[in-house]
Amino acid sequence: MPKLDTMEAVEVEVKACRKCELWRSRKNAVPGEGNPDAAVMFIGEAPGYWEDVKGRPFVGAAGKLLDEMLSRVGFSRGEVYIANVVKCRPPENRDPLPSEIKTCTPYLDRQIRIIEPRFIVTLGRHAASYILPKAGFETGSITKIHGRVYEANLLGFKVFIIPMHHPAAALYNVKYRDKLDKDFELLKLELEKRR
Ligand code: URA
Ligand code: SF4
After folding, report:
1. For residue 171, how far is its CA from the centre of ligand 1 (angstroms)?
2. Does the CB atom of residue 139 touch ligand 2 within 6 A?
3. Model confidence pTM above 0.85
4. Any idea what the CATH number is for the domain that residue 173 is in?
5. What is the extent of the structural domain holding 144?
6. Any long-range contacts for 148-157 (C-beta under 8 Å, 24+ apart)?
7. 4 pLDDT exceeds 80?
8. Would the CB of 65 count as within 6 Å of ligand 2?
9. Which residue of 83, 111, 114, 144 pairs with 140 in a disulfide if CB–CB is 3.0 to 4.6 A?
């Protein structure tokens, strides 16, 4: 019988991965972290400066905001799982290229399959436009698609997808901060409803 895939195996592979050119400029790959049995999985875009330095997701300014939002809905970082679409930092924080997304996302898919979360929260445009079409939904600008729960079948299991603005956007625009606040309220309600 084939050995079951584990989060640790994925993390080890990601740390040594050289499948796309992003390995050349990274300091550390950032596989993701948290509870492999999490009910809620957060998916961001790609590591930024501090994530690359530390090898951990969302540890910079956007991460502080994410932590704040998490504690408001009663979660600590260790209870959820936090990952990114792309595991190595694109130079100067540029957008990841379609080819990089294509090469890297088999890791994310494996992580999703291992966790089988009840909820997936996508943070920002790149995560939404990777996850929603995979579940058969049309994607669009975050402003249009956020604030809703998509009941989906993803990679063979049932999951509720909640697209949100990226916390980095909320840091420089108070309008997005309000929307992110409201969407975390929505997540909280949904969690209570479906517990
Ligand atoms: N932004 C992201 O999308 N991911 C991180 O890990 C940090 C910042
Ligand atoms: Fe490998 Fe992904 Fe890093 Fe590219 S971004 S080197 S595919 S882990």
Report:
1. 13
2. no
3. yes
4. 3.40.470.10
5. 3-193
6. 149/186, 149/190, 154/112, 154/120, 155/109, 155/112, 155/113, 156/113, 157/116
7. no
8. no
9. 144
